[in-house]
Amino acid sequence: AIGGIAYVGYNIWEMRNPHDQPNPDPSKKTLVILGTGWGSVSLLKKLDTENYNVVVVSPRNYFLFTPLLPSCTTGTIEHRSIMEPIRNFLRHKKAAVKYYEAEATKIDYERKVVVINDDSEIKGDVSSTEVPFDMLVVGVGAENATFGIPGVREHGLFLKEVGDAQRIRNRIMDCCETATFKDQDPEEVKRLLHMVVVGGGPTGVEFAGELQDFFNSDLKKWIPDIKENFHVTLVEALPNVLPMFSKQLIDYTEKTFQEETITIRTKTMVKNVTDKYIEAESVGPDGQKQLERIPYGLLVWATGNAVRPVVNDLISQIPAQKNSRRGLAVNEYLVVKGTENVWAVGDCAVANYAPTAQVAAQEGAFLARMFNNMAKTQEIQSQLAELSQAQEVAPTKEARDEIFANIKDLQKRLRRVQSINPFEYSHQGSLAYIGSDKAVADISWFAGNLASGGTITYFFWRSAYLSMCFSTRNRVLVFMDWLKAKVFGRDVSR
Ligand code: NAD
């Protein structure tokens, strides 16, 4: 029995640690994957890595479960609970995968190389080099849109990465502690405690809800002095928030925010940002446009995505991409138009779908299936070539017939493998947390559509997100964080 356990243990250990691949296998193509987000990681999850020399390049050596990032800004969830080290994950693959922690700063399409830069604090003698590719998957995501509005980058905080969530968490506490500083002027107290969120998409709405929760259940208990002046305002340029949800759920969200005393300022477009106030244009009661100053202590900027420079640079190298403004235009097999060996997934690809995690994950899984099939196709084709050679020199009719039957079988298999349908996104629904233990969900099940909001939806939201977590480890950590916040409250230290 002990021998058996030891054997199983050894096998698990082996499975977790494929031997390093010291040099690329020259008989295989080199597949370079840029990014470790939803698209790239879901591709890696399903990819048979023994078919290619797989190289992953990303400045972030972990996968981040972004749907729960807003919860990290208030300490409801600790950021490490939603991070999965990419190296742990790659160690589970059957064949070794090379990983470089670096930013891809240029893709040279003609020369088939990616220029990579080590942008970490500690640098070795080499901190910039080139990675050649036969096949390339671009899954670098997008950056935060600012629309060139002055002051946003200097004074606003974004909500895309772990560092952003930590900065916001720190700034919330900074505002509260500074507002209660001795002899602080009442107007200044008001400013410091005004939490402004720009952008009424799901990111802005979820963050505003989380922040108000933080205030209601913890901040006002531990720092009663801020009770009178703490206020959250959500600013949105369009006539309503959450445009991707149904009218009923938009109304529900707006009503819930009203009850939570979050102010929603729709039809209000931010034009300028300074260190203490934003300038926003809205339509006044007289129908005239007016510019007003809104003082703030915390400014979170959540106005969606913009194209990364490395992607814009690639676009400029490919004539067929001339009119691409929002990212790399891809065909129905996610091939970057105008290329044969470059694919794009997730927020950097333009495939007529919203830039969501769900789309990116499905695109990644599709590419994995396609790459696995491409490898199988090659394998079958070389078997077929061998068989037809063997058939020519076969000594007897029986031997020839047997080989012929095998060829027929293989051809059938080849047809099956080659018949891969184009990528089609299957929308499972949209979910968003809106604060005070409520969530909204637009779910398309079977033929019907379920639009729901409220506490039951909230439990559905929780269990859905829990089940979508990357690993069992993440799931356990997130569950413990929720429990901890419920029992002890959130941590209000910096
Ligand atoms: P978004 O693009 O969905 O929303 C940004 C909002 O900012 C828009 O409504 C826009 O009108 C507004 N805006 C832009 N400039 C403005 C200005 N100067 N002043 C005021 N308002 C301005 O952005 P997001 O919320 O970051 O989402 C990005 C993508 O990620 C979307 O596709 C979204 O569906 C997805 N996402 C989904 C979820 C979820 O399903 N729970 C959560 C987060 C993000």
Give the helices and strands, then pairings:
Blueprint: H1 2-16, E1 30-34, H2 38-46, E2 53-58, E3 62-64, H3 69-72, E4 83-85, H4 86-91, E5 98-101, E6 103-108, E7 113-117, E8 128-132, E9 135-138, E10 143-144, H5 152-155, H6 162-179, H7 186-192, E11 194-198, H8 202-222, E12 231-235, H9 247-259, E13 263-265, E14 269-273, E15 277-283, E16 289-295, E17 298-301, E18 305-306, H10 309-317, E19 328-329, E20 342-344, E21 349-350, H11 357-393, H12 397-418, E22 430-435, E23 438-445, E24 448-454, H13 455-468, H14 472-488
Parallel strand pairs: 1-2, 1-9, 2-5, 9-20, 11-12, 11-17, 12-13, 19-21
Antiparallel strand pairs: 3-4, 6-7, 7-8, 10-18, 14-15, 15-16, 22-23, 23-24
Helix pairs in contact: 2-11, 6-7, 11-12
The structure holds nicotinamide-adenine-dinucleotide (NAD).
Nicotinamide-adenine-dinucleotide binds next to helix 8, strand 14 and strand 22.
**In one word, what is the shape?**
elongated
Strand content: 15-25%
- Portion of residues in helices? 25-40%
Global structural class: alpha/beta
CATH architecture of the largest domain: 3-Layer(bba) Sandwich
CATH fold field value of the largest domain? FAD/NAD(P)-binding domain
CATH class bucket of the largest domain: Alpha Beta
Number of beta-strand segments: 24
The poorly predicted ranges are none
Describe the 3D structure:
35% of the residues are buried. By secondary structure, this protein is α/β, with parallel strands linked by helices. The protein has 2 domains: 189 residues, FAD/NAD(P)-binding domain, CATH 3.50.50.100; 217 residues, FAD/NAD(P)-binding domain. The radius of gyration is 27 Å and the shape is elongated. Helix 2 packs parallel to helix 11, helix 6 runs antiparallel to helix 7 and helix 11 packs antiparallel against helix 12. Strand 23 and strand 24 form a beta hairpin. The model has no long low-confidence stretch (mean pLDDT 93). The two termini are 51 Å apart. Helix content is 40%, strand content 22%. The strands form 8 sheets. The protein has a 5-stranded parallel β-sheet, with no helix packed on it. Strands 13-12-11-17 form a 4-stranded parallel β-sheet. It has a 3-stranded antiparallel β-sheet with strand order 6-7-8. The protein has 14 helices and 24 strands.
